[in-house]
Amino acid sequence: MNLMENLAKYIDHTLLKPEATEKDIRRVIKEAIKYNFATVFVAPSWTKEAKKLLEGSKVKLGCPVGFPFGMETIETKVFSAKKALEDGAEELDMVINIGRLKSGDYDYLRKEMEAIIKIKEKGIIFKVIIETGYLTDEEKVKLSLLAKDCGADFVKTSTGILTTGAKVEDIKLLKKVLGDYPKIKASGGIRDLKTCLEMISAGAERIGTSSSIKIIEEYLSKRLQR
What we know:
The protein is α/β, with parallel strands linked by helices. α5 (about 105-120) packs parallel to α6 (about 135-150) and α6 (about 135-150) packs across α7 (about 170-180). α8 links the parallel β7 and β8 (about 205-210). It has nine helices and eight strands. It has helices spanning about 20-35, 45-55, 75-85, 100, 105-120, 135-150, 170-180, 195-200, 210-225, and strands at about 10-15, 40, 60-65, 90-95, 125-130, 155, 185, 205-210. The chain has one domain (about 5-225): TIM Barrel (Alpha-Beta Barrel).
């Protein structure tokens, strides 16, 4: 992908605030279509409505699983993922069970990832949210390699709610460990063009942000000034 041609295709336009109304959902869908973002992410209860609003566009629909804490049982996450897919989601971002990770229970985390991967259909993108702000570098590496082994499509830095979010050094570490696959999604605290471009330069191939419009308009303005 040529960054200078289309930054929008790096961006997952996101609205996951609990107070988001139907009017808000309609707005972000319109924005996603206008700028042709990679995906638009909404809460599970809005997925079916969002799918209808996206009809005829190239923008994919994303839905979180286990958001934001990741503490649900594996069975609950599988049910949530199945429901999201039934309602039209094309990308699933699942928060891992951080408590299990901190307990060193990597077998549980493997089962959790594999359970979601098992049900996803061809063409569905599965991202694993590892919440880097809670992890040591050793945990980041071990968990990312586990996600790679399980067949995840992306490793995502964070929800953007629980911790400080994406950091350039974490993107560089994950890129060094993972290589070209799984891809890396930087999320959390990305609110301006400079930070967005730094994440991409470090190796991120997706950017999750609720500041998409600010970022893309700044980007387009700079292009026009050339």
